[in-house]
User: Fold this.
Amino acid sequence: EFRKLGLDPKKIKVSDYGFRPAPRRPRLRRERPLQIGFVGTLVWHKGVHVLVEAARRLAPAAYELVLYGDLAPFPDYVAELPRLAESLPVRFMGGFDSTATSDIYGQFDVLVVPSLWLENSPLVIHEAFQAGVPVVGSRMGGTADLVRHGEWGLLYDADSPVALAAALRSIIADRRVLDEWAARLPEVKSIAEDAREWEATYQELASASGPA
Assistant:
């Protein structure tokens, strides 16, 4: 995106976030509907309505959609979501404490990140990777940088419930692909690694600039 705006690529250094270590829970293999998760702010630009509209195109017995996000900040938007989800297997779970992150992601078979704006490097994608959960995300911004289509997740056109439904339907049709993707998920950088990288960057810049 910066290159599209004309920024010299030589001036760009990509440094992703560092995270605290988190346990990766074993994948649940019992017969059950596909557990589709969403974690984030319940607001228009996060695309939750696109996800619910996509869910309406799936066989109701084949999935459960579990939405985690504080219901209070954007009440007008949140008020519309239950109407969109009427008669669907959708559960609104509210927010959760950060200490429960591993348990929350451990419930999901797949996380959906349906953002309609240019995300930078969504925290929820890193959290899902740490938990061993593949991601289906909109093909824009940082999401498309993190999710490698067909290798450890799927990408779809951001504003298309039809395309998102097709992606989820393909997983429902062959859930073995989730185990394949989970085995390929990239390692998430630790906070210690992040600190070392930034220290090296500052040393490099200081050496290049010479004495003040």
About this structure: The radius of gyration is 19 Å. Residues 23 and 148 are 22 Å apart (CA to CA). The chain has a mean pLDDT of 93.
